[in-house]
Structures are given as structure tokens and as C-alpha cells.
């Protein structure tokens, strides 16, 4: 599970995998995270794990291509996580090569 802050809302992603299938659920919480703040289902889907990994790598590649390392940091205020993208790409290739 991980969370993105998209002011003034927050988005929580829950990913669950089993047997090469990935279930994704996205919830949204409006406003701040104070008492009484509720998460509302926004979207969910089921994917082949290899498909989700491929699409994720390509999306991050597109962001990096559009903005570059410096531009990314200017837009988002933090460095692009190139090492993490390399790790995701390697994991996807291993998954793809295993035939899963």
C-alpha cells in the first residue's frame, strides 16, 4: 500500500498479487487526514502482473523523456527515482523472461 498526496486530496493505492495476477484498488480522501476523514473507493482493476509492470515502466519512461532529470525535479520538487525505475525495469524483465 502506498499513498500520494494530491492537494487538497490524498490517494491510497493498494496492490495485491497472487499467481501472476495483480489487483489494484485506488481510494481518495478529500481534504486533510484529520478525524472523521474517510477514504472513498475511486477505482479498481485486475491485471496480469507482467502487463501492469510493463505499463508502469513505460509510463515512468514517458515522464522522464518529457521532463528530463532536471525538469522532473523542478516540477515535483524532488529528484526522479532513477534507481527505483531501474529496479522495476529489471524485475519486469525477469518476470517477462520467466513467461509469467
Judged by helices, strands and strand pairing, the structural class is alpha+beta
The N- and C-terminal alpha carbons lie at a distance of 23 Å
- Helical residue percent? 40-55%
- Rg of Cα set: 16 Å
Report the average pLDDT across residues: 88
The tally of domains stands at: 1
Number of helices: 2
Beta strands, count: 4
Q: What are the segments in which pLDDT stays under 50 over at least 5 consecutive residues? A: none
Strand order of the largest sheet: 1-2-3-4
| Apparent shape | flat
Biggest beta-sheet profile:
4 strands, antiparallel
Tell me the β content.
Answer: 25-35%
Q: What string, H for helix and E for strand, traces the elements in order? A: EEEEHH
What does this protein structure show overall?
By secondary structure, the chain is α+β, with helices and mostly antiparallel strands. The chain has 2 helices and 4 strands, in the order E-E-E-E-H-H. Helix 1 packs antiparallel against helix 2 (82-97). The mean pLDDT is 88.
What tags apply to this protein structure?
100 residues, alpha+beta, four-stranded antiparallel β-sheet, 2 helices, 44% helix, flat
What topology emerges from the helices and strands here?
Elements: E1 2-6, E2 9-18, E3 21-29, E4 40-48, H1 49-76, H2 82-97
Antiparallel strand pairs: 1-2, 2-3, 3-4
Amino acid at each position: 500500500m502506498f499513498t500520494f498526496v494530491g492537494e487538497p486530496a490524498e490517494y491510497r493505492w493498494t496492490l495485491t498479487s497472487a499467481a501472476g495476477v495483480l489487483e489494484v484498488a485506488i481510494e481518495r480522501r478529500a481534504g486533510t487526514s484529520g478525524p472523521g476523514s474517510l477514504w472513498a473507493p475511486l477505482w479498481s482493476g485486475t491485471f496480469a502482473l507482467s502487463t501492469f509492470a510493463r505499463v508502469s515502466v513505460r509510463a515512468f519512461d514517458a515522464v522522464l523523456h518529457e521532463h528530463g532529470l532536471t525538469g522532473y525535479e523542478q516540477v515535483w520538487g524532488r529528484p526522479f527515482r532513477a534507481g527505483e525505475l531501474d529496479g522495476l525495469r529489471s524485475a519486469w524483465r525477469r518476470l517477462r523472461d520467466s513467461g509469467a
